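Hi support team,

I submitted a single chain yesterday and got back a structure, but I'm not sure I'm reading the token output correctly. Could someone confirm the output below corresponds to the sequence I sent? I've pasted both exactly as they appear in my results page.

Thanks,
R.
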Amino acid sequence: MLLVEDEESIADVLAIALRYHRFQVMTAGTVREALALTERVRPDAALLDVMLPDGDGRALGKELRARMPGLAVVFVTARDAPGEIVGALGFGDDYITKPFHIDEVVARVTAVLRRTRSADVLPHPPPLRYGDLELDETTYCAHRAGRVVELTPTEYALLRFLVRNGGRIVTKEQLLRHVWAYEHAPAESTVVETYISYLRRKLAPLGPPLITTRRGVGYGLA
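Hi R., thanks for writing in. Yes, this is the structure output for that exact sequence:
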């Protein structure tokens, strides 16, 4: 997969998430770098920022699709006007607006590849486990003590990040950055606390308390 994003922090988060899901990722920060990379390697998919320092990601998408007709193209951008979306979807496969959830990006890239490639090229990530908790990375379902835990996509993303960092305390700022893709969230934001309470409420009937709070620091798993 080719990832083209000029904001280094966003590119790093996306690349880590995609590699975790078994995608082979090469990154570029400009149109020129992207074109140079595809001279040497032919990716199955391209995840392109629309606003790049040396050009328009949509024009890059057209150029890449002309070179590689079977390439799956997904755009990521802060532009959300209907005309922008319709125009990009005229030659792309999907369009994701910022701010976005990392899990949404992975899921939508996987869905695009499912439509454009045979199943044997899709990644098959193993389940994540922590104690009696299991997260199925193929179906995005959660189980505790063998029983299904009904989670929303955001709740799943939050729990998955905690599981990945099991045994460690993660700060509110880290959760906002990795789960909600916020770089500069308002200090008064309570979105993390709200979703932590949702998770606790759903997990509590199935076993002992799982999510711990380190006051003034962050959250972790018991």
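A quick pointer for reading it: Residues 134 and 143 are 5 Å apart (CA to CA). Let us know if anything else looks off.

Best,
Support desk
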